[in-house]
Prior knowledge:
This protein is of the alpha/beta class. The protein is 29% helix and 13% strand. It has helices at residues 8-16, 27-34, 38-50, 56-59, 80-88, 104-111, 167-170, 185-188, 192-198, 213-220, 261-269, 289-300, 334-339, 361-370, 393-401, 423-426, 451-460, 490-498, 501-507; strands spanning 93-96, 126-129, 150-156, 176-181, 205-207, 227-230, 253-259, 278-283, 311-316, 348-353, 376-381, 407-409, 437-439, 466-468. It has a 14-stranded parallel beta sheet with strand order 1-2-3-4-5-6-7-8-9-10-11-12-13-14. Helix 2 (27-34) packs antiparallel against helix 3 (38-50). It is globular. The protein starts with 7 loop residues before the first helix and ends with a helix. Residues 480-484 have low confidence and may be disordered.
Amino acid sequence: MHDCLKIPELVDQIFSNFTAEYYGGDAKVLARLGRTCRLFHDPAMDVLWREPQKFAQHLAIGPTWRKRSVRLLRPIVPGDWDRALVYTRRVKSFAFPSLSEVSLSEIFPALSQCLPLGCVFPNLTHLSWYPRREADFPYIQLFISPTITSISISSMPASCTVLLPTLPLECRVLKKISIDLIGHAFRDMGGCFPAFLHQLETVEHLSMLLPDAASLVHVGRIETLRFLYLPALPLHVLPRSVEPASLFLNLSTLIVGSVDIEPATNIMAMCIDSTFQSLRFTLETCPTAEVMDKFYTALTRCRRSHASLRSLGVCSVADDEPALVQDPRYLLRRHTIQRLFCFAQLTEIEIESACGFELDDGICNQMARAWPHAERLTLKEFYNPVKQSVTLESLHSFAQHCPALNRLHLTFDARVFPGPHSSAQTAAGISQLKLEQLHVGYSLINAYNPRPVAKFIGDLFPNLQYLATARNDSYRDPDSYESDDDMPDYHSWQEVEERLPGRIRMWGR
């Protein structure tokens, strides 16, 4: 046998490939490897049982269960666990229910008898608990192991929230927590939640809803916290007695879903000394341009993030009424967008506005210069803007100043070509090789002769393979465009896509 196969880490890496879909995920291969020789037995069994797909696998390893049911054939005795421990100690990750139909409330009163070591999987590191029945939830205690580093809990009823304060105490190495409470759990849980929060001293990754400003402030003081996902925010998130600079000092990723703009602005005021790498907000409504400017102003006050922020997303959960498109108060202003140019290290930018952006070729040129490391840039509107001041010249700016740009979403007027004295003409011959996907939104084009546009874009981005329009967006029914004027140039853009050199090389003519 080759000496390399005597290195445990290398053998584990090789055997792990046999659980991948590429190899069909065939457990029989690992079973054969385990029987090949003694050196392979333990590594093969460790991989085979590391992430069991069905809890029924563990029920089948003892002599007390029918092969196709979960009915006891006889009472459980301590000796029944001897064989089970050979396998259960190898389990590192477990999800309930995964592909199992088993109800724990029917089997665990018996199965938990004579349970050795106090838990089913003594070396478990990742636990996902999503019971379909409320009666199954309390049995999570039988799976809590001191070795758990990551736990994800969904649909936790208020009656079981008394278990929360014990989690950090029983799992001393717990780093990642994701909890989804159902119904009015916060209202009914009394002092359990504050007690739980006060035990979180070493958590690094937290995903859960926080009921009030006090909880948010406490989480903001956890020094080890690096990742925070909040499904929503309390309306008032910053008590007057709290110094904003003392919160979220080490937080690198903040994701907030389904939130009004006011609490989103308030939480950014709590993070002025944070060093963010990733920020993402999903807004419930379409705020006015003035209100959005206050939000972005609060964002730019996070001065330590100017050199660290890599990803920024400000999106919307739903498109607003089309009538807002006609209201200039909702158009995102150019000076608001320019505020973001201080984040010079951005690689992913996604900004959505139901009513569009106040952009022109000059602002796009500044944008391309401000974000030279951009790999994905999305400026997306939900409805056809009244005016399109951006032209094809802006594409040239991105090709010239953003060499790593791979995906671009931008609405522009493709009927206007660069003039003889434009930067696109004075710096002709530039080709950007990284761009593969271009989304043109509601861009206008000469429907009678789209070939010059295809040549212009193809010369700038010779490896461009995919071109999409607003009609391709999943939140709108493509058939709804058949009877309106939202996307009259769709077929012309299809012709442009078919003529792209990169697409021709990939798919042929």
